[in-house]
């Protein structure tokens, strides 16, 4: 796949739940509507034959379904580590996962959560990377407030109450901390989802000489004043039905082209924002596995 290109993937998944329900969940998840409004809309939709319990079961996360790699897997070692963040909240904490059998120095990947803290899905993504030979660190933006509270609603409220600039500095500090890991090869990648996708774009703009590869999943660009610094390489993953995020892409692509940045972008048609998250009904297995295999190939290419 050449740089500066975009491919379209088709989805054959059958989605019995109406599109508007996924749109409402996206609005709810990103603070555009409150929970009462979200639930009242689902109740109204129930009149068309979908029970509220069915809708909520499909839309809201069930993290028990998202575990692909056990934290007890003997091939990896998972622990929590702290790192200094003098420009952020002073100190950060992250979930560090290291392969037990390292063959020389290992590549490094920062894993960035959505807008609700370090939930079980993101921890599992870090473990998946470690199983493939990467040292992965997943910071928790909510650590200054006690950490991910165990449910997304409270986590979302907590994160929205925090200083955005300090959160960004915490992730920059985490990236620099991971890049110096004693068992790492010094090559740093970052993958993030939703808010985490934004953070990956922000890192690509804020520390372009320190980030060796970035993969934002359905993430918006960094602030306009920073975008001119992006050099890549980036692999940008978009959901075809994600109108909110996709609307930001044409202008961002113009900037990347003007920068002569190295990038590739994929749009997976027929899937929703969050299609990689296997804890919700937005998950689309075929497209998620394809996007993830491309992510691993990208990191192997640029971080080895």
Q: Give the mean pLDDT.
A: 91
Q: Please state the CA-atom Rg, rounded to the nearest Å.
A: 19 Å
Runs with pLDDT <50, length 5+?
1-15
Can you write the helix and strand succession as a string? Answer: EHHHEEEHEHHEHEHEHHEH
The CATH homologous superfamily name equals: Alpha/Beta hydrolase fold, catalytic domain
Shape label: globular
**CATH topology title:** Rossmann fold
Question: How many domains make up the 3D coordinates?
Answer: 1
CATH level 1 name: Alpha Beta
Q: Could you give the order of strands across the largest sheet?
A: 1-9-8-7-6-4-5-3-2
Q: Name the CATH architecture.
A: 3-Layer(aba) Sandwich
| Cα separation of the termini | 19 Å
Number of helices: 11
Query: What class, by secondary structure content?
Result: alpha/beta
Helix content, binned percent: 25-40%
Total number of beta strands: 9
Largest sheet: 9 strands, mixed
Strand content: 15-25%
Account of the 3D structure:
The protein is an alpha/beta fold. The chain has a single domain (6-303), classed as 3-Layer(aba) Sandwich (Rossmann fold), CATH 3.40.50.1820. It has 11 helices and 9 strands. The protein has a 9-stranded mixed beta sheet with strand order 1-9-8-7-6-4-5-3-2, with helices on both faces. The two termini are 19 Å apart. Residues 1-15 have low confidence and may be disordered.
Spell out the blueprint of helices and strands:
Blueprint: E1 6-9, H1 19-29, H2 35-46, H3 52-59, E2 76-85, E3 90-99, E4 106-112, H4 120-131, E5 135-139, H5 152-160, H6 164-179, E6 184-193, H7 195-206, E7 213-217, H8 224-227, E8 234-239, H9 243-246, H10 249-259, E9 263-268, H11 285-303
Parallel strand pairs: 1-9, 4-5, 4-6, 6-7, 7-8, 8-9
Antiparallel strand pairs: 2-3, 3-5
Helix pairs in contact: 1-2, 6-7
């Amino acid at each position: 796949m050449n740089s500066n290109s975009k491919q379209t993937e088709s989805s054959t998944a059958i989605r019995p739940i109406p599109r508007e329900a996924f749109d409402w969940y996206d609005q709810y998840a990103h603070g555009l509507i409150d929970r009462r409004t979200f639930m009242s809309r689902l109740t109204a939709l129930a009149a068309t034959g979908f029970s509220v319990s069915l809708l909520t079961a499909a839309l809201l996360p069930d993290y028990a379904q998202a575990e692909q790699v056990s934290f007890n897997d003997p091939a990896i070692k998972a622990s929590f580590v702290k790192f200094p963040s003098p420009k952020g909240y002073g100190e950060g904490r992250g979930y560090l996962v290291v392969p037990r059998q390292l063959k020389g120095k290992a590549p490094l990947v920062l894993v960035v959560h959505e807008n609700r803290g370090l939930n079980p899905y993101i921890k599992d993504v870090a473990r998946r990377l470690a199983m493939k030979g990467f040292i992965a660190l997943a910071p928790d933006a909510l650590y200054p407030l006690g950490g991910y509270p165990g449910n997304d609603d409270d986590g979302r409220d907590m994160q929205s109450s925090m200083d955005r600039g300090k959160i960004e500095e915490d992730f920059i500090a985490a990236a620099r901390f991971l890049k110096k890991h004693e068992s790492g090869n010094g090559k740093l990648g970052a993958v993030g989802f939703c808010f985490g996708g934004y953070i990956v774009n922000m890192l690509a703009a804020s520390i372009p000489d320190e980030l060796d590869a970035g993969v934002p999943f359905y993430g918006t660009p960094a602030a306009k004043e920073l975008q001119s610094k992006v050099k890549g390489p980036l692999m940008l993953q978009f959901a075809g039905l994600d109108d909110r995020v996709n609307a930001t892409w044409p202008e961002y692509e113009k900037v990347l082209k003007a920068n002569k940045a190295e990038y590739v972008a994929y749009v997976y048609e027929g899937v929703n924002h969050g299609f990689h998250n296997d804890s919700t009904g937005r998950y689309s297995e075929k497209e998620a596995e394809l996007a993830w295999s491309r992510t691993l190939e990208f990191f192997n290419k640029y971080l080895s």
